[in-house]
Amino acid sequence: MTAFLSSLGFGLVTASVLAIAATGFTLQFGVTDVLNLAYGAVMTAGAFVAYVLNAAGVSVWIGLVVAMIVCGAGSVLLNACVYAPFQRRGVSPITMVIVSLGMTLIIEFGVQAAAGGTSVSYSMSDGPSLRAGGLDLSVVQLVVIGLSLLVMAGTHVLLRYTRLGKAMRATAANKTLARNCGIRTGRVIAVTWAVTGALCGLAGVVFAMDAGSFGATSTDLFLVLILAAVFLGGPGQAYGAMLGAVIIGVATEVSAAYITPDYKYVIGFVILLVMLGVRPSGLLGARA
Amino acid sequence: MSDEPLPDEHAPRRAGAPLRAESVTAGYGGDPVIRDITVAADPGQVVALVGANGSGKSTLLKSLTGIVRVTGGTVTVGDTDITRWAPEAVARAGVGYVPQVDDVFAPLTVRENLEMGGYLLRPARVAERVDHVVTVFPRLGQMLTRPAGKLSGGERKMLAMGRVLMLEPGVFLLDEPTANLAPAIARTLLAEHVRRLADSGAAVLIVEQRARAVLAIADFAYVLAGGEVRMSGTPARLAADPAFTESFLGGAAPRA
Amino acid sequence: MNSFYIVNLLIYAAVDAMACLGLSQQFGIGGVTNFGFIIFQAAGGYTAAILALPSQTANGGFQSYIGGWHLPFPLPWIGAAVVGGVIALPFTFLVGRRLRGDFAAVGLLVTAVLLNLLVTNYRPLLNGDAGLSLIPQPLQGEFDPQSSGYGWDFTIGALIVAVAVYFFVRRLTESPYGRTLRAMRDNDTVADSLGKNLLSLRTAMLVTGGAIAGLSGGILVSYITTWSPAAWGYAETVVLFAAVIIGGTGNHLGAVIGAICVPVGFEEITRYIPTSNNLPPNLIPSLEWVAIGLLIVLFLWFRPQGILPERKRVIRVPDTAGVPAQPGARPRPAPDPASVPEPRPRPPGGRTVLEARDVSRDYGGVRAVSGVSFRVTAGTVTGLIGPNGAGKSTLLAMLAGTLPVSGGQVLYDGKDVTGLPAFRRARLGLVRTFQMASEFKRLTVMENLLSAVPGHRGDSFRGALAGPRYWKKDEDAAAARARDLLERFGLAQHAGSYAGDLSGGQRRLVEIMRALMAEPAVLLLDEPMAGVHPDLARTIGTALTGLAAGGLTILMVEHELAIMDEFCDPVIVMAEGAVLAEGTMAELRSRAEVVEAYLVG
User: Fold this and answer.
1) Non-local CB neighbours of B142 within 8 Å, separated by 6+ positions
2) Is C594 exposed, middle or buried (0-12, 13-18, 19+ CB in 10 A)?
3) Which H or E run includes B206?
């Protein structure tokens, strides 16, 4: 029982990190129609931006904010300079995947070239550990969970109640019709890259906090978990990604406690492959 | 934020502006689909575009709204030349377009669809306009929170027209609004709603397959064939012309 | 430069070139995007290692793994190729499904990552992340692997295998079978409708590519004598794709050049850059990866066709008159479509060749076609008209098998073909064309026509491998037939142009000619005259009537009623998913309901 509860605690933290990342990924894909496999690499870049500042003596929480800004701006540039020109040329989805894999190599190993190949970690205090009914979480872990709840609530408010969020959903649903309504979809898409890029940066930093130590290639496997959460909920479905993140986050950590930690990602991969094979539109997606 | 609401004085007004398309040629990159088409619609008029499948009616509307590239000719609304403007700019110029398919945002609720229709308005004005549209289409008022994808065909088309009404455009472009509707609903839609748009001062250019039904409410009509205007005139004159029926049912040899 | 260095480079070049050739065949020719490609090389590597390793005691017993067969050369290499091919079979299900291309790519990438993770963590099977080592080299009992002579012999052996692989894929590609593969790559639905078995073609491509990748892995392992998960990360697949894209997708020589530029150029050569103490240890490898990423993106933008673009295949038509008819082909009438035939007598109560019985189709709850029944009589040109959304194209697709029916039966030549896939119906002579542009863009006009020829001896894996001498006669006969058609339709001067470069009207013609090359008994045409100049429309109509006079049956969807009037008898009218009326145009025009369907709805 204690093993279960403590793994559940880890699961909640993993699920929280995953929820931030998957929400950003799925919004990005839904609105822009780019399956950006460089998302994990951008997360890494964000984690390293915070690390550089942290190593220079700045608080990691300020680093986190800077990482969000850098990743938001970087994602806007990534789209404007790379993805959008390819999309305008009308290349196939496969070509876009190859382009995004190329960008993955450039960003990920660009970070590695700049930062060196060794693992690093933030210098920060985890704070006192809090115990509640068998769950044992540090303050930092609680903050991560809180941030994730904040992101999910914020996404909900953005999409349901703001003009921008509704325009994002309209653009995702039918871009031509959105333009017929006078919506400047080009700007909506640029703002989407900024918002989801910032979420990606946030996800990168909290991922690094959760992982303890991290290197340039640490997000490779985590990207697969993000994809699993996204496809479980249905690509483009923000609530689906949140649901998928919780299921996969908890499932990986609990399975790690009972089977072996070596295989903790396997369950996420299997879920992803099953979803792709059986129902690529996801649990919450419309049937094709 | 991405877009500033239009100041009220720039909002398109119902005092409709005449739409003119002069010698428009357009297509999808290869051979032009429509060639040298001239049509016009004045405020207060319903102008019908009829013709067989593939005669270029929908392409003409898409070229007027900026979706299909115009390669020749000019399009004006009032004194403004909107040739080759982007769709979002055409909308700002006061042209409302209802496509034949994909005419609503399926995952958004009815209210959100209307809000997107009023995207260019101030928030307070949006609420006013939603109230107004609901008085025009009372059915929509009962289902404001329902996703548009779950509406019936007729309700969906009302929503599509309501969405366009939000901006009070001076020009309406309607692409086969009665397609896939039961005949009774189709007649109601044309007689009540489409006619009323013109009667309240807008210029309406409507593409229809149901030629007889649309001629009953139209002030003027163009018959398109093979991407060109084959004949035009008032409904009375067209109905009296045997060549008009023939243009639908063939009988003549293909044009050389 | 010492000889060890050169030997090393050449062997890597041979191995990478083989892998790139396998991928080029799969991706560049067959259009099968396999982001799990590295799995097959890995499988070959492990297979060769397991087959070659002696029993546990022989290596001091420090490794625990299965087998200990210690098989002599070349069995480990052969085993590597066989296993690489066999494990490709289950992947047919992922690649064969109608899954969005980018989603399928994600699925395969993830499979590669997953398998790597499993092997890394599961020690008992393949020794986990430590991998297998001390793998015996070929013939190491007879020769001394440390000697430089051995290195050179190994190099020559590897290069010979690589050259053999090159000629193997070249023979496959430069054949009617290769043409079919490229047709599938350009438009799989259309290839299906012309009688090509997509599942079998894709399986063949996966297995061929898998076997080649497996062989390359086997050779690599028996040279470097160790194999571990670090050698086959998912990124290695990206490197191979980069090589094929940079070299030239669809050009095998380009794949070899790509292999030399990317994996050899970046990964191997830089291994020998002397490391300076001033540089961080990971800098050079990191920058290599950055450079590979940059190369991919820049090439896709500035030169998507690669260093060596796909060659245009010119087909020479033999000047021999009176080409003998093909063996095994269905008996065909040989009408002259350009001549205007006499008014054709309607066969009284003629034979029904195609019949729809209560055929329905639902799209997500909407009934597009509901309970349609009609018969098509042999030798007629039957027209199918109706307003937009009447369900004409859907009906045509169900008759051809492109779309499954939701209910009802399709009978062809008296047999129930409802359950047959499109390619089987096409092979029986029920061939369709498409409303949308459907030419194979990167095939020439001549190749488009030849791609449809049924029963071509060279249009099979074995036929292609048997070589041109086996299929040349069929090819010449087909080319002569294609040239005749091209001359009749006035496109002879475009025979060598890419179909994608033609005008809209010319592409329609290519499609109709291609369907005729498939030797149909019943031809289903979906708006063949749409977007065609009226003069040309008349030529097409006349040609079709001529073919019908010679025995071909045609069912044609059209919107230009004047065309119906002139060329079609009888005409079927559809509205709102159902048949409204049937008769001659003259009869139909006098019937109020038909006029209503068009004018009122």
Assistant:
1) none
2) buried
3) strand B203-207
CA B51 to chain centre: 16
How much is the pTM? 0.86
The rounded distance, in Å, linking the Cα atoms of A151 and A149 is 5
Count the domains in chain B: 1
The shares of helix, strand and coil residues in chain C, as percent rounded to the nearest 5, are 55, 10, 35
Task: Specify whether C227 is located in the same domain as C356.
Answer: no
Asked if residue C301 belongs to a domain, the reply is no
Tokens read off for B217:
């409410």
Nearest to B95 by CA among B81, B105, B108, B106: B81
C560 touches chain B (CB under 8 A): yes
**Chain B residues 117-136 with CB within 8 Å of chain A:** 117, 119-120, 123
Interface membership of B149 toward C (CB under 8 Å): no
CA angle A165, A171, A172 (to 5 degrees): 90
Q: Token pair of A188, please?
A: 């909506």
List pLDDT tens digits, range A36-67: 999 999 999 999 999 999 999 899 999 999 99
- Is there a contact between B3 and A167 if contact means CB atoms under 8 Å apart? yes
- Chain B residues whose CB is inside 8 A of the A178 CB are 105, 116
How many CB atoms lie under 10 A from the CB of residue C448?
30
- Annotate B61-85 with b (16+ C-beta within 10 A) or e (fewer): bbbbbbbbebeebebbbbeeebbeb
CA distances from C535 to A249, B152, C505 (A): 66, 44, 11
Tell me, yes or no, whether B137 lies in a domain.
no
Pick the last residue of a domain from C232, C250, C276.
Answer: C232
Q: Could you tell me the residue range of the domain that residue B217 belongs to?
A: 37-104+168-249
Measure the N-to-C terminal CA separation of chain C; round to a whole number of Å: 83
Q: How confident is the model at residue C523 (pLDDT cuts 50, 70, 90)?
A: very high
Segment C59-111, tens digit of pLDDT: 545 555 566 777 888 889 999 999 999 998 888 776 655 666 778 888 888 88
In whole angstroms, what separates CA A68 from the centre of its chain?
A: 12
Domain boundary residue among C190, C208, C232? C232
Segment C552-571 shows an average pLDDT of: 84
Does a structural domain hold residue B21? Answer: no
Do C532 and C396 reside in the same domain of the chain? yes
Beta strands B34-41 and B46-51 are: unpaired
- Tell me which chain C residue has its CA closest to the CA of residue B225: C560
| Residue B50 main-chain phi, psi, to 5 deg | -120, 165
Question: Taking each helix axis from N to C terminus, what angle separates C37-52 and C75-86, rounded to the nearest 10 degrees?
Answer: 140
- Rounded to a whole number of angstroms, the distance from the CA of C343 to the nearest CA of chain B is 16
Domain count, chain C: 2
